[in-house]
Amino acid sequence: MSTLWTPDGERPIRQQPQGPASPYTPGGPPPSAAGAAQAAPAADTGGAEAGELPLSDDERAFLAQMAERQRQLAEAPGDVVVAQGAFLLVELAAVKLG
After folding, report:
1. How does 25-48 read in b/e, with b if 16+ C-beta sit within 10 Å?
2. pTM: predicted TM-score of the whole model, two decimal places
3. pLDDT value, residue 55
4. In the chain, what percentage of residues exceed pLDDT 70?
5. Cα–Cα nearest to 13, from 36, 31, 27, 33
6. C-alpha to C-alpha distance for 67 and 8, rounded to whole angstroms
């Protein structure tokens, strides 16, 4: 698969080199959000684009949590993510079928 659909649009999938080095910085945004973070205006507007309302502290905390979850998901091997989804479907079927 060469792309992955996200609510923000299609994202290219790059194969990460195997090894101890990680392309992610701890606590940093995932690669897909890195471009958006660089395009953000100066801090004097509270991180809001022209015509947008500034973000509250709760919203900033939520976005930071989402960025961390995206980073964790991006680092997870694909077979683990697929297996976890399949297991969830098996559990739901067991509950539904009794």
Report:
1. eeeebbebbeeeeeeeeeeeeebe
2. 0.35
3. 85
4. 59
5. 31
6. 14
